[in-house]
From TrEMBL, chains A, B:
This is Transcriptional regulator. Pfam families: HTH_20. One of its GO terms (molecular function) is DNA binding. It comes from the Bacteria. The lineage of its organism: Bacteria, Bacillati, Bacillota, Bacilli, Lactobacillales. NCBIfam families: HTH_metalloreg (NF033788). CDD domains: HTH_ARSR (cd00090). Residues 7-99 form the HTH arsR-type domain. The keyword Cytoplasm does not apply.
Length: 99, 99
DNA sequence: TTTATAGTTGGAAATCTTTCAAACAATTAT
DNA sequence: ATAATTGTTTGAAAGATTTCCAACTATAAA
């Protein structure tokens, strides 16, 4: 059973990116909060619960969005973040529940 | 429900280190290989299956050992690596099976 | 219109990560 | 004793990541 590093499936790539995201305390906290709250949250609400500079928060949320772990919705001047639970569970079943 | 970043439990810390380990392709491949093989492997045997420079391999194995994801045993000039399945499953149940 | 609120972006600084070559130690084989 | 095999370590180079300030856009409120 040989494993070639060159050929990584999309799923594998997504998994690794999830691992990368969760290896950073700030993002770990954000994801954990979103999961436990169980519904979308406004960025500023998130920011009120998680102590991170607002631009750092923005940076982390962009990372999570680029990876595909969250989606966002803008309403007026507020932005709501929603955890993409289904997609994450599809490649790493149960991981969110164990955070 | 507030989450303070300052206080991370040991378990949470271990989880994050596992995520860190698995976010790197080389280590991901090593861990996956060890899991699927299902028993300890000699470093050179590992190196024959996973294409990584030997010193890079050594570096990654040291990281995995420091995190506590693997243990090693030396016999003669060979070194055997064993995945600490129980400990990993204790904090992230089923994660190895989904790699 | 002016001001406040929500969030993004650019850029710089500090730090961390990964990789490899070269030299090394330890063990086994010739 | 010499040579080959196993694996570690050091150190340097290149690159990635995180953080924060300051300036910015856009919407809503006064």
């Amino acid at each position: 059973m040989d494993i070639k590093q060159s050929s990584a499936t999309e799923t594998e790539e997504f998994r690794r990116r999830i691992f990368f995201a969760l290896s950073e305390p700030g993002r770990y906290t954000i994801v954990r909060m979103l999961y436990h709250v169980g519904h979308e949250m406004g960025c500023s609400e998130l920011n009120r619960h998680v102590e991170i500079d607002k631009s750092t928060m923005s940076y982390h949320l962009r990372t999570l969005r680029e990876i595909g772990m969250v989606t966002t919705r803008t309403q007026g001047r507020e932005k709501f973040v929603r955890l993409n639970t289904e997609r994450i569970n599809a490649v790493l079943p149960g991981i969110l529940a164990s955070l």
